[in-house]
Amino acid sequence: MVGIIDYNMGNLASVYNACHLLDAKASFVKDPNELKNYDRIILPGVGAFGDAMENLNTTGMKEAIWEFSKSGKPMIGICLGMQLLFEGSVEFGEHKGLELIEGQIIKFDKSKMHEDTKIPHMGWNTIEVKDDHTLFKGLKDPYLYFVHSYHAVTDDKNVIGTTEYGYKFVSAVNKDNIYGFQPHPEKSHDNGLKILKNFMNL
To answer: Is 16 helix (H, G, I), strand (E, B) or coil?
Structure first.
């Protein structure tokens, strides 16, 4: 069973539909007490980091995600959901994250980019895969769909994929049973479905 965390910030329908296409039994989870009953969980997200963390804190879902992370069962954050896995973000102020992976979320640095480069980073781009990671099995530097203005900065040991947009940034991470993807696999057609299928097979 796949639990899709519903905290009023997610792109839930697209994630659910992708799971359905993969014949995975998925359901939305609003009650933090139910999270432990799932084999794996997906933390989606669209919107502002601070609002998302406030919702996770006030609902008790933050503590439930922490407990799930200790279980050894796979969990994945997508887009904003990936960013929430880190220690904090500077989006519209300073905010603490879930602190499951070391690192911070920062805004794209326009000083490192060509003046015509637009923020947010929106559209299709490539992930350069590091070390043929399990989640990229059957894929070679896949083309995926991105929408974001902030990105992660973290230790190289957590990085399983990078992307070039003005400069190279971290677009996929893994620490133990915790995974994160900056792009939207649920909106990335066959390549994205393959990544989610690999996640289901972990």
So the answer is: helix
Interval 42-87: pLDDT, tens: 999 899 999 999 999 999 999 999 999 999 999 999 999 999 999 9
Which helix or strand (DSSP H or E) is residue 51 part of?
Answer: helix 49-59
What global pTM score does this model have?
A: 0.96
The single-letter DSSP state of residue 22 is T
Return the closest-CA partner of residue 127 out of 115, 119, 138, 136.
136
Show the 3-state SS of 131-176.
CCCHHHCCCCCCEEEEEECEEEECCHHHEEEEEEECEEEEEEEEEC
Which of 8, 103, 108, 4 has its CA nearest to residue 52? 8
Tell the residue number behind the tokens 């009023």, with chain if given.
Answer: 8
Residue 99: closest CA among 88, 113, 110: 88
Whose CA is closest to 65, among 45, 104, 37, 36?
36
Task: Write out the catalytic residue numbers.
Answer: 79, 184, 186
Q: How far is CA 3 from the centre of its chain?
A: 15
